[in-house]
């Protein structure tokens, strides 16, 4: 007699055998120098001042990272109210709409738009559509002698030219924050045609946090190869070796954080 065995990989569902869900399986991985946080592993956090929303802290210093990355999903009446302290925060609208006020400056924020909030600034996100998704990158600001503090930056990813990476038109990079030494972090969007890949295995001091916005592919992290897709977050510690190729029927794209522009050593 045959037994039916269904195995569903890589779709956010649990693996299934004989129609039974196996809840002991996950695509999420946490290692010393990298992590994949897939949505199947989310547990919610409560953040003071961030109300009527679900917050998932995907990356932070408890993991060994030098920054924090969260995903906020709004319910009806959601509000994020606070003041940046020693850390700057980059907010990127993954889905939905809201109104944002930084100090006394208000704007509407829609899908693909962002606001960078420097240290010591009041912020208020309100009038959020239910299911709005807001991605945040937080980094302790390191002041650079001879440079002013960065200003608040509002922007729309659609207004940023996608530049061919390493001369390869199948890889396109958008740099959302100014190329200016007053900034110590970057927020970039990397888009890959299906089949396109990073030109080399990168080995670098800079750290990354990323969120897949579209498509799927295979990420190499250290000696491991992971299938990844829209909604997955990845942490790459300094010197975590990395490579990616996109696959499937659509382009892949991810938004990522990178620490930049500062003296590399305390020695
Ligand atoms: O900016 C970067 O280091 C980028 N090329 N890394 C990556 O996509 N993993
Ligand atoms: Mn890199």
For this entry, give a set of tags:
single chain, 267 residues, mainly beta, ten-stranded antiparallel sheet, 23 strands, disordered N terminus, binds (2S)-amino(carbamoylamino)ethanoic acid, binds manganese (II) ion
List the helices and strands and how they pair.
Blueprint: E1 15-17, E2 20-22, E3 29-30, E4 34-37, E5 45-47, E6 50-59, E7 68-83, E8 87-95, E9 97-102, E10 105-110, E11 113-117, E12 122-126, E13 133-140, E14 153-156, E15 163-165, E16 168-175, E17 185-192, E18 208-214, E19 216-221, E20 224-229, E21 233-236, E22 242-247, E23 252-259
Antiparallel strand pairs: 1-2, 3-4, 4-21, 5-6, 6-7, 7-12, 7-13, 8-11, 8-13, 9-10, 9-12, 11-14, 15-16, 16-17, 17-23, 18-21, 18-23, 19-20, 19-22
The site of manganese (II) ion (MN) has 4 residues, from loops.
Please tell me about this protein's structure.
The protein is mostly beta strands and 267 residues long. It contains no helices and 23 strands. It has strands at residues 15-17, 20-22, 29-30, 34-37, 45-47, 50-59, 68-83, 87-95, 97-102, 105-110, 113-117, 122-126, 133-140, 153-156, 163-165, 168-175, 185-192, 208-214, 216-221, 224-229, 233-236, 242-247, 252-259. Strands 5, 6, 7, 8, 9, 10, 11, 12, 13 and 14 form a ten-stranded antiparallel beta sheet that branches. A hairpin with an 8-residue loop joins strand 6 (50-59) and strand 7 (68-83). 31% of the residues are buried. Mean pLDDT is 94; it is low at 1-12. (2S)-amino(carbamoylamino)ethanoic acid is lined by residues 190, 202, 206, 208, 242, 258. (2S)-amino(carbamoylamino)ethanoic acid (UGY) binds at residues 190, 202, 206, 208, 242, 258.
């Amino acid at each position: 007699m045959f037994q039916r065995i269904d195995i569903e990989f890589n779709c956010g569902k649990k693996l299934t055998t004989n129609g039974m869900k196996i809840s002991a399986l996950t695509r999420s991985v946490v290692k010393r120098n990298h992590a994949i946080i897939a949505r199947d592993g989310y547990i919610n956090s409560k953040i003071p001042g961030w109300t009527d929303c679900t917050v998932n802290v995907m990356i932070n210093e408890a993991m060994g990272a030098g920054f924090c990355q969260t995903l906020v999903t709004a319910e009806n009446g959601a509000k994020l109210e606070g003041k940046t302290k020693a850390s700057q925060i980059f907010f990127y609208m993954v889905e939905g709409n809201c109104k944002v006020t930084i100090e006394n400056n208000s704007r509407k924020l829609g899908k693909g738009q962002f606001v960078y909030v420097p240290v010591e600034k009041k912020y208020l996100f309100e009038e959020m559509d239910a299911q709005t998704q807001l991605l945040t990158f937080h980094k302790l600001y390191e002041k650079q002698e001879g440079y002013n503090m960065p200003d608040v930056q509002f922007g729309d990813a659609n207004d940023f030219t996608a530049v061919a990476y390493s001369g390869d038109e199948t890889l396109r990079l958008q740099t959302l924050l100014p190329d200016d030494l007053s900034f110590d972090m970057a927020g970039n969007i990397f888009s890959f045609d299906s089949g396109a890949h990073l030109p080399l295995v990168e080995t670098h001091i800079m750290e990354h946090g990323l969120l897949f916005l579209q498509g799927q592919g295979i990420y190499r992290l250290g000696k491991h190869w992971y299938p990844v897709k829209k909604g997955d977050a990845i942490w790459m510690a300094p010197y975590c070796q990395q490579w990616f190729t996109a696959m499937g029927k659509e382009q892949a794209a991810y938004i990522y954080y990178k620490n930049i522009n500062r003296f590399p050593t305390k020695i």
